[in-house]
Amino acid sequence: MTVSLLHPDDLEPSLLARGTYASRRRFTYIDAAVLLGLMLCLLMLIPAKLIVPNMTDLGRPGLIIAVLLFAWWVLARFSPRLTMVGPQPLRWVVLLYLLSILASYAVGFLRGLTTMEANSADRAVLFTLAFIGVALVVADGMPNWSRLELVLKVFVGCAAFMAVVGLLQFVLWTDVTVYLMVPGLEPKGFVPGFEVRGSGIRVASTTMHYIEFSAVMATALPFAIHFARFAATRQARQIFFVLALLVAAGIPATVSRTGFLAAALALLVMVPVWTWRMRYNMLVLATLLLAGVTLVKPGLIETVWGLFTGASEDPSVTSRTDRYDMIYSYFVQRPWFGRGTGTWVSPQYQYLDNQWFAQALTTGIVGVAVLALVHITATALAVLAVRRASREVDKHLCAALASTQLIGIAVAFTFDSFSFTTYATILWLMVGGCAAVWRFTHPQRTVRTSAPRRFGQETGARSTVRS
């Protein structure tokens, strides 16, 4: 009797040859990576104001796919023929988050809600299902590094497109999103205009807000740098280098403190995994980019510098701090589970411009603690993957994913990040990516593969060959 040393589930197709992909389940053209890529295209390329007619904010085509992804994951978990093998810490943390949302949702209805609050609460729960569905499909549905990288490449490409739209708006002072109308969709809700700030204007590209646009660009920047360095071919590296420059140039176009802070946090996390040559190259490129921005908009650098030095007198900052007493008065009334999920309706009350405060008011201490646990868990999984990974390219990608969680924590202090669905969906996709790389680098084969239980049992039985 001979025993095969190579477990069939442990095959990494991308190691066979460039461009090779052999499914661990069955040959298919549509898998989780394809659907996630389609969702990103619909979210980022189509202006956020466009929805399916006669629907609410959930009518964005990308969000519809996100909800269907949640349903797909649930069906897969309840089917004994499709259930994934091995543990996944993120599943338990996401379950706690969902339970906290549902508990606060019930508390809100027990308190008694207005019609506007009740409708907002229903939407908030559906948004939550869409977000966690994306995270879980990424965590459990990515079969290997190659498919995860495909999703991230689509993300970088879409982010570069958003950057081009934003730069055109910034230079031409023209809303070019009016040329991105999609037949069959209709505009709904607030349409972001241009806001003059110093010597420049703030643009939102295809998103709903300037800060959201800057947060998306900062989140995409580490991955653009990653593929500009590690893409398979020289031509691909050159293409991603151009995309990285576009994404980086999109951040100043928002004239937003959030974008610069988020980009700085991302680069701070990436520096430890860079070589000295890479650090030197990045410093040179940053200097050249800064010089180019100064040449195009001479007063922009001074404006951005003033955003930080004069923050204590900036109305956008003081208006936030002036709300602290009001927030505290509402918070102490219902500190544990809050007023109810989604019941702080900004037009009805006030804009908070702080996701952590919004979380505290609507879901209480429990909701804030569980959301923080989501970020902490995702960061820990990505950092652990950095330590386990043996290839430099894998370490670099894991560090990029870890940086997205620090960005998520930081930008939540500057705007209601979960109210802006383009960024919120991307953030939860990164949460799932952190869990996926944890699985890819796990020492046990049955954990790091995504084979169905039935397939794993069958192939395990075939590994013993009788002679």
From TrEMBL:
<protein>
    <submittedName>
        <fullName>O-antigen ligase family protein</fullName>
    </submittedName>
</protein>
<feature type="transmembrane region" description="Helical">
    <location>
        <begin position="213"/>
        <end position="232"/>
    </location>
</feature>
<dbReference type="Pfam" id="PF04932">
    <property type="entry name" value="Wzy_C"/>
</dbReference>
<dbReference type="GO" id="GO:0016874">
    <property type="term" value="F:ligase activity"/>
</dbReference>
<feature type="transmembrane region" description="Helical">
    <location>
        <begin position="283"/>
        <end position="308"/>
    </location>
</feature>
<feature type="transmembrane region" description="Helical">
    <location>
        <begin position="90"/>
        <end position="112"/>
    </location>
</feature>
<keyword id="KW-0812">Transmembrane</keyword>
<feature type="transmembrane region" description="Helical">
    <location>
        <begin position="260"/>
        <end position="276"/>
    </location>
</feature>
<feature type="domain" description="O-antigen ligase-related">
    <location>
        <begin position="243"/>
        <end position="371"/>
    </location>
</feature>
<dbReference type="InterPro" id="IPR007016">
    <property type="entry name" value="O-antigen_ligase-rel_domated"/>
</dbReference>
<feature type="transmembrane region" description="Helical">
    <location>
        <begin position="58"/>
        <end position="78"/>
    </location>
</feature>
<feature type="transmembrane region" description="Helical">
    <location>
        <begin position="124"/>
        <end position="142"/>
    </location>
</feature>
<keyword id="KW-1133">Transmembrane helix</keyword>
<keyword id="KW-0472">Membrane</keyword>
<feature type="transmembrane region" description="Helical">
    <location>
        <begin position="397"/>
        <end position="415"/>
    </location>
</feature>
<keyword id="KW-0436">Ligase</keyword>
<dbReference type="InterPro" id="IPR051533">
    <property type="entry name" value="WaaL-like"/>
</dbReference>
<feature type="transmembrane region" description="Helical">
    <location>
        <begin position="356"/>
        <end position="385"/>
    </location>
</feature>
<feature type="transmembrane region" description="Helical">
    <location>
        <begin position="239"/>
        <end position="254"/>
    </location>
</feature>
<feature type="transmembrane region" description="Helical">
    <location>
        <begin position="27"/>
        <end position="46"/>
    </location>
</feature>
<feature type="transmembrane region" description="Helical">
    <location>
        <begin position="421"/>
        <end position="440"/>
    </location>
</feature>
<feature type="transmembrane region" description="Helical">
    <location>
        <begin position="154"/>
        <end position="173"/>
    </location>
</feature>
